[in-house]
Design brief:
alpha/beta; Rossmann fold; GlcNAc_PI_deacetylase-related; 235 residues; 8-stranded mixed sheet
Length: 235
């Protein structure tokens, strides 16, 4: 881990309350926050809100039309949460259309999420970094900022996924955020199992669309081998 990243303990990141993770797609929760979630389930509690159904990744597949693929993604998501120590009640599946998140009303989504956060009693919310290039990640980050405007007592943290992989100057470019790292050694095996639960993202079950999306094994290894990174996001 970069020497300039300070270490942060779970209590500092959670404020001693349940945490809420906003995942643009099923697998982002495990990749970006799997260790944090495992500790949350062990301690004060955690809840994961998966925003989209991730049904647009294999548009040329005849065996896996969007409706079937969305169902598979949800099953994998719930399996991943179980691997991290959570239960189905610890999840919310919004099921919005993959790659079409920009077409929805962010204020309405934020309002719906606010009620979930209030019910759980969370004070800290984790959302994708705006530096991630994927449009659904950017829109989820915008929804998270709207959420905090609705409830200014919430603390918003960002977690990087794609920018951590494809930005060669990632460590330098995020220094302005004063990032921290969270040691996942205790939960590394759980996190690895959660990521592996997303089989359709890893290319192991959809065989009739070779041009469809597949997580690079090196990408997966990076998120298993390295600590997680977060930074507080001002509004």
């Amino acid at each position: 881990m970069n020497a300039h990243f300070r270490a942060a303990c779970f209590d500092a990141l959670s404020s001693g309350t349940p945490i809420v993770i906003l995942a643009p797609h099923p697998d982002d929760e495990s990749l970006g926050c799997g260790g944090l979630l495992a500790e949350g389930f062990r301690q004060h509690g955690a809840h994961v809100i998966c925003v989209t159904d991730r049904s647009a990744s294999h548009p040329n597949s005849k065996e896996w039309p969007p409706e079937r693929l969305a169902l598979r993604r949800r099953q994998e998501f719930e399996t991943a949460i179980a691997q991290l120590g959570g239960k189905p009640a610890d999840t919310t599946w919004l099921g919005l259309k993959d790659s079409q998140l920009h077409a929805y009303d962010p204020c309405q989504i934020a309002t719906d999420i606010e009620s979930i956060v209030a019910r759980i009693g969370a004070r800290c919310v984790f959302a994708p970094a705006t530096e991630d290039h994927h449009a659904d990640h950017k829109t989820t980050a915008r929804i998270a900022r709207t959420l905090v405007l609705l409830d200014p007592d919430l603390t918003l943290y960002s977690y990087p996924v794609w920018c951590r992989w494809d930005d060669r100057d990632f460590a330098t470019n995020i220094q302005k955020h004063d990032p921290v790292h969270f040691d996942i050694a205790r939960h590394r095996a759980r996190k690895a199992a959660a990521i592996r639960a997303h089989e359709s993202q890893l290319g192991s079950c959809i065989t009739d669309d070779p041009d469809g999306f597949r997580l690079d094994p090196r990408f997966v290894a990076k998120f298993i081998d390295e600590d997680e990174i977060f930074w507080r996001t001002p509004i």
